[in-house]
Description:
Layout: E1 7-12, H1 13-17, E2 23-27, H2 36-40, E3 53-59, H3 69-80, H4 87-96, H5 110-116, E4 117-121, H6 124-134, H7 143-147, H8 151-159, E5 162-166, E6 177-181
Antiparallel strand pairs: 1-2, 1-3, 4-6, 5-6
Bound molecules: zinc ion.
Zinc ion (ZN) binds next to helix 1.
Amino acid sequence: MSDQTPRVWIGCLAHYNAGDLVGHWFDAEDADEVTLADVHAGSGLGFTGCEELWCFDHEYLPVSGELSPHEAAQWGRRLAEVEPHLRGALRAWVKSGCYVAEGRGDLPVVAEFEDRYCGQWDSFGDYAQQLAEDISLMDGWPDLAVQHFDWKGWTRDLRFGFTVCDVDTSSGDAPGVYVFNS
Ligand SMILES: [Zn+2]
């Protein structure tokens, strides 16, 4: 798995408005501690009169568009609350729009994520089969009933109770789905 640390490109708004792209990449969770000096370092430009910093670009954050360093730090810290191997799933859950957000904001509730996450699977059908085994769905059924069981229909009905998100393969992860209890 590649390094999927959420990062933001923080630039100086005053210089940006004057046509100079002055800034650097930083870890999102530190975004609100980045100073004018950090941002202007290496640019050869002074920062007298500069004031506001802004995140013009980002990676591995489940938000679209630009955001403030304060918001970026909140997202970065929230994502850091889960194990690195779960961050792709948490991002996908947020991007699905069917997630539990905290209060009136957009940040996901990590405890809800952990409750609802049912793992990463090759397909929802694979998850359904494993679930059928786990709950002993066919225990005691006659062979004929097992043979003629309508897997397709059962899986389709089951799916209504879940949120299923494609794994983002752009960063080298294997294709598949993340499954969440809705
Ligand atoms: Zn500046």
